[in-house]
């Protein structure tokens, strides 16, 4: 009976180890990616879109691409508004056109300086309509970096 218990422990140990070691420290594993929420390092620091993206690239990542309902729900749990990886013609960096999750009436390119970047604003009333176009340089927000799970 003791041998059977040891076999169960050894069977589950590799699963737990690989699950914890796939992402760097302070990064969160979700589905097949690792995410770093900027608030994990500094609760008060906000940046414009360019600086947010530069921070992610410096970490060998990029701004988050939310391209599935599961990921939309997962990012919503972060509880902070943040930049996402869309710019200009509303195409993600991976060349997929953004068509989901826009708030009603968005994108609308309002304002004098144009709104060529996207931000995600979460609302409990409508968690599926979160995307809004914003000014890339004038709006400072939190951000989420994403990179592939290693």
Automatic annotation (TrEMBL):
Residues 1-18 form the signal peptide. It comes from the Eukaryota. Keywords: Signal. SMART domains: CLECT. It holds the Pfam family Lectin_C. InterPro entries: C-type_lectin-like, C-type_lectin-like/link_sf, C-type_lectin/snaclec_domain, CTDL_fold. Residues 30-132 form the C-type lectin domain. PANTHER family: MANNOSE, PHOSPHOLIPASE, LECTIN RECEPTOR RELATED. This is C-type lectin domain-containing protein. It comes from Takifugu rubripes.
